[in-house]
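Hi there,

I know you've been waiting on this one. I reran it after we fixed the sequence typo, so this is the corrected version. Both the input and the resulting structure follow.
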Amino acid sequence: MGGAPLDGPAGADEHAARGFGFDPDQVWGVEPDQPQEPAWLGIWPEHWDTVRLFEAMRAQWRTGPGGAVALDYGALRDVGWLLGIGPTAVRSAFDGLRLMEGEALDWLDEQRQRRDA
């Protein structure tokens, strides 16, 4: 499944998919004969590490009484390592990650306001 959106150690995504009963060739809705590069997903290659990091950090939100307040950057280095993204690439992706974090927080705040209205 090389080149899949969330490549980890060789075969890790395939093994995880099978463990949950999924067909690894259809994880993420990608058919086996479709390209699996960032461009196919509409993501510029220079932003790919940022998107992968943001997606992988989805369980690393710090929360307060009102909900999510920030990503836990303490986990970022380890998450990057698990994804095979080196320290230099993680540093390069950091500004984009913060931008995505801010947009996500704005969206969550909008959802909260709609719910509470």
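Quick highlight: The longest helix spans residues 87-116.

Best,
R. S.
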